[in-house]
Every structure is written in C-alpha cells, then in structure tokens.
Amino acid sequence: MKSSYFILLIALVCLYSCLEPFNPQLRESESSFLVVDGIITDQPGPYIVKITRSAAIGEETEFVSGVDMSIEEENGVTETLTETSSGIYQTGGIQGKEGKRYRLNFNYLGQQYQSSWQKIYASPVIDSIYYKAEKRGTTDRDNDVYGVQFFIANHGTEDGTKYFRFEWDETWRIGVARGITDDYVGRDSITPTTKRFITTCWKSAETRSLNLGTTLGLSKNVLSGHKLGFITGEEARFTRKYSTLIKQYTLSEEEYLFWKYLKEANEEIGGLFGKQPAKVVSNVTNLSNPSETILGYFSASGLAEKRLFVGTGNLPSELTASPSCLLQAYLKEELMEEYETTLLDGIEDGNLFFRLLYDEEDTEVVAGAELTALHCVDCVANGGDDTKPDFWEE
Questions:
Q1: What are the distances in angstroms from CA 310 to CA 148, 151, 169, 173, 320?
Q2: Among candidate residues 114, 154, 161, 155, the one with its CA nearest the CA of residue 255
Q3: How far is CA 50 from CA 36, 56, 85, 256, 318, in A?
Q4: Closest to 381 (Cα-Cα) out of 181, 203, 232, 185
C-alpha cells in the first residue's frame, strides 16, 4: 500500500513540474491599429475627425498628428481639414446635404487611406421624448438603484432609412449642501464671512453607451417607445433641474451592422460557449496596403435633435434629495487644551468654519465647533460651471 502512495506522489510531482506559464508576446503591429472616428451630417458644422492608435488595457490612447486629411463630396467640393490639436481634425465651411455621398481621404506616413462612399439619409421627425422614474435591482439585494428611463418615438417615410443611432448630452443644475455665513477668529468668536461662494452651477456629460434602433421588420417605419439611457441620480443630477439633448443619426444598413457588431463584441460575449463576436470591419481602407487592419468608421448621417427638461415634481425623493456633505466635529471635552490649536489648524489646512456647537443643557456654553470642506459650500469647487447655458430654461 505504501508503495502505491509513493508512486502517486511521484506522478503528481512530475505533472506539476510540466506546467509552465504561457505569456505570449504580441508584436506592436498586432496590438496597435489606426482608429478613425469621424462624421459629417446635414446640419451645420464644423465636423470633427479623430485619428488615434488602439492601446492595450491600462495604457493611454495615442493621438496621431501630422495627417493630411480631406472630406470629398461625390461630384462636388473637397475640403481640407485643419488639425486643431493632436489627432483632432476639423472642417471649415463644408456642410453635408441630404441624398449626397461623402468619403474621407487622408495620407499618413506615405500611405493613402480612404473610406467608402457614405450617403446621408434624411432624419425622420422626432415625435416625442419622454421618461419614467424606475427602481432597479442589483446584485446587492439591499441596494436597489433609482433612476430615470428615457424613451424616444419617431416616424419616417416608407422609403426612408430604417436604421438609427442615438446619443444624448446631459446638463443639470446643482447647488450646495451647506451655507457659510461666518468665519472663526479664535477663542470661540465668529465674524460675518467676507468670502464669496458660488451656490448655483451646471454640470454636463455626454453619452456613455452605444444605442441603436431599427424599424426593420415592422409594418410601418415608426419607432415607438425605444429605450434610450437609464440615468441614475449620480452627482445630484435630479436634485434641482435636469436637461437632455437627444441626437438621432440616420444610418445605412452597412453602418448599422458595424455598430451592432461592435456593441456585441464589447458587451455581449458570454464566455467559452457564449455568442462569439463577428469581425468588426471598418469602412476605411489603406489603398497602399489593403491588408492593414483599420478600426473605426467614417459616417455620413442625417441628424435630428430634441431637448427635454426634467423638473423634480414627478420624481421620487430618492432622486431629488440633496446629497449630504460631511462635517467634522471638534469637541472641547475630547481635545482639551489642544482644542483651539487643532481647530485653527483645520481651518488653515483648507477646511471652512460651519458653526459652533453648544452644550445641550446650556446653550450659552460652547462645546466645540464643526468644519466643512470647500466643495460642500461652493459648487465650482464641486466641479460645476457657474456660467448659465444659453439654452437653459428656468
């Protein structure tokens, strides 16, 4: 019996010694590709084209400078783009037209690149944008998420495009959690503050997900109740007033499939036996070297926009409640003779005096003080912009 155990032990040791880590080394050419991201629409420009290189996870995106670039209209004008910053190229006066076809041309390191022709399809009318407050469960049973689900409805002509991509820009008004009226001057004495704090600001954000829609297979070219973003109450989005600008882009079937496959490749891979992604093929080709892999897409789209404002009246308190802001208490009975020094050091370190704390039994006896942070009393310090947007409605 002992000999059997010994043989088994020898076999396990040999098996383990045969296992070696495999760390493949990818050549730079296999992990760094040109990425094209650009669009022309039937609305006034300027239009932007970005040229970058793909990067590994954790690495910074490399913007590609020194590209000679133009947008060409079929049987029409050609406009040269200007590099406004590293890897960012901008048009001047060209404007896309419904029914016309456009393509991108650029030269980089002696190689000539060109997109396929892209036609601008008219964007159908946006009939309505509406929303519904929802509570959604998470993997944590005790931590549901409250948010606002937005929807869009449109209708197009029978011979119009049936493919769409949606983006949205967010803007919301924020305030402050605390109001500072006094400064602490030592020995439990206060004086009216002369500091100026900004108490009304606006924050903005852009689309963070890829949203596609199609009326293919429907009896009418009508998109009804299509889900846009589910927006949570992060960063006090709904505590005062919120606005979203919905952008509806028309797509060709070719471009729709590009974005669909890209979305699947990034969001819907379910493991070894899950749905495997199709190859996401760009519409840009290296004419000098057709085998080069290019990522991204140059688009030509009809564009329709619609703005919606959301007040606090129809939203649950979980979304409209003002965020709390931490106060730090300094108590005499705990700090003893160090109380005054510690309090003044806290103010010198950038905290702000909020209020004196009094003994519960005797409101004339100061028991300590509370300090707060600048971002609790000034919305600019909290990442806001105190310039009111031109489109804002009170």
A1: 10, 13, 14, 11, 11
A2: 161
A3: 6, 18, 10, 20, 40
A4: 203
Rg for the chain (alpha carbons), in Å?
A: 30
Could you tell me if 190 and 335 lie in one domain?
yes
Of 106, 97, 96, whose CA–CA distance to 35 is shortest?
Answer: 106
User: In terms of C-beta density within 10 A (0-12 exposed, 13-18 middle, 19 or more buried), how is residue 268 classed?
Assistant: exposed
Pair (88, 44) in one structural domain: yes
Angle, vertex CA 242, rays to CA 323 and CA 41, nearest 5 = 140
Which residues, given as ranges, of the chain have pLDDT below 70? 1-31, 268-279
φ and ψ of 10, to 5 deg = -60, -40
Residues 6+ apart with CB under 8 A from 39: 47, 48, 49, 249, 298, 299, 300, 301
Same domain, 315 and 352: no
What b/e string do you get for 276-299 counting C-beta neighbours within 10 Å, with b at 16 or more? Answer: eeeebebbbbbeeeeeeebbbbbb
pTM: predicted TM-score of the whole model, two decimal places: 0.84
- The reply to whether 169 and 313 lie within a common domain is yes
Which residue do the tokens 């937005």 mark? 150
DSSP 131-183: EEEEEE--SSTT--EEEEEEEEEEE--TTS--EEEEEEEEEEEE--S----EE
Pairing of strands 241-251, 163-174: antiparallel
Judge if 92 and 160 occupy the same domain.
no
Residues 130 and 255 reside in one and the same domain: yes
Predicted local confidence at residue 233, as pLDDT: 92
Judge if 110 and 63 occupy the same domain: yes
Query: For residue 20, what pLDDT is reported?
Result: 53
* Range of the structural domain that residue 368 is part of: 182-200+321-376
Residue of 233, 177, 239 whose CA lies nearest to 373: 177
User: Within the chain, where are the H helices?
Assistant: 2-17, 28-31, 253-267, 317-320, 332-335, 339-348
Q: Are residues 131 and 255 in the same domain?
A: yes
Count of residues in the chain: 394
pLDDT given for residue 340 in this prediction:
95
What pLDDT is attached to residue 31? Answer: 63
CATH of the domain at 75: 2.60.40
pLDDT of residue 2: 46
